[in-house]
Design goal:
Strand content: 15-25%
Number of strands: 24
Number of helices: 18
Shape: globular
Amino acid sequence: MRPTALRVAALVLAATTLVGCSSLQSQVTEVGAVRMTDDRPVRDGGTLTVALNADPDKLDPTLGQTLAGRTVFAGMCEKLYDVDAEGKAVPQLATAAPKITDGGRTVTFHVRGDATFSDGTHLDAAAVVTSLTRDRDLPGSARATELGPLKRIEAVGRYGVRLTLKQPYVPLTAALADRAGMVMSPAALHRYGKDFTNHPSCVAPFRFVERVAGDRIVLAKDPHYYDADQVHLDRIIYKSIPDGTVRLANLRSGDVQVGDQMTPVDVRSALTEPGLQLFNSPSLGYQGIGLNVGNTRGLGRPPGHLDTPIARDVRVREAFDLSLDRETINKVVFQGMYEPACGPVSPGSALAPGPDPSRCPRRDVARARRLLKEAGVHTPVPVELKVSTTPEWNRIGQVVQSMAKEAGFQVTLRPTEFTTMLQETDDGHYDAFNSGWSGRLDPDGNIANFLQTQGAMNAYGLSDKRVDALIALGRTQTDPRARARTYDELTRRVVADHALIYLYRQKNYVVAGKDVAGVRVYGDGLVRVDRAGYVK
């Protein structure tokens, strides 16, 4: 074997040794502490500190893009609909499921009449209209693709809302169960404008108090909240601690009570701690590597021509994909505790494509080299890979670097702070970067924003007419079997474009002190602590 092959083999052996005969998965099962909820009675009062694995981006539902930001929003911005433990959309600020008429082109619902924003103003239908219109129309909105099908948004009476659609839009309720469904205070939007991110105001158990960039976000119990009697904590502090080992050390010391997005290595350590408990749930999302194939002028702009080997020829991108071994990455970096991913739709989805080995080919260095030769590129092909500054992505980067070298690529790693990487990749200043998504109930939420031409978060600059057509078709189909066939074809197409190389599907691991109860962790990846507290 070549030296690089020896290095990969050694890493695999190390991973196998770590997992051993009694795998971490079996340890988790045997402990019996894995669960999504904890309903023990709690006392009122106290401050809960939650350690996040990244610094959240903008605290503006219209503009936000990160899982860390969504986790903070879970405490300070309620939505029209929420996700329950079974992965279903349930009313939150809306009073019931939406009523759909006119062949799917008209959607109506009502909102609560007892809800008040954290600034003391009242929630009504006009506030919903303001938020949805802003989400759809504001330049740079990350919600524009999700709400693009909305033709008219209008209030019907004080609490009724009517949406008129350009065409039937099946994923709408799922979209309203995420940031597109968060209702912002019109008074705060008018007062602060672009600076709303520093003065966010919504309806929620907790209100925004302060943010210290790169360190913490502080929320306090909101006395205006309609269900304030069910809120036990006085304050929540979200601290940014990217290193999982440091998060675990803070959990052990008691400086932090909840650790979000814990890695398998840290979970294994946490299982030996008598004072800690583990929550987990399957993920609806994916993690992978995004390649710049046409982002020359930034998000929302028409894709342009990039004169790089990866952008010029899909064969080069396919070769890069073929150089990677998903199973080995999972074993080396995550002790086999995650699942290899080969497409955007979670296997847990009712619309997930069936098993297909051709969609997720095994590593094939010989074929990768042939493709590079056919493409006529000089080797080694240079690729700068931006990776976030977490130990996990540092290890993934090293494994990718080693594997890709055997196929004819020279990968240079550029560790980049997470929010900086978001800005740089949104602007198109990259070759490749670690690209992930926490996942949505409807598969459209994992695809359209990212892979539709000029999608709100299409940082790759991909433009594929067939992909666009399939996205449009899948949004209108009410027959689950027909939709499943559409998403099967769509998955094949986006995988063949190789603009986003899907690597693995993580699990949502959350570790908390055993004196904390009321924590909920569902498939959408959010840590819900709105009803949490300290055990009586």
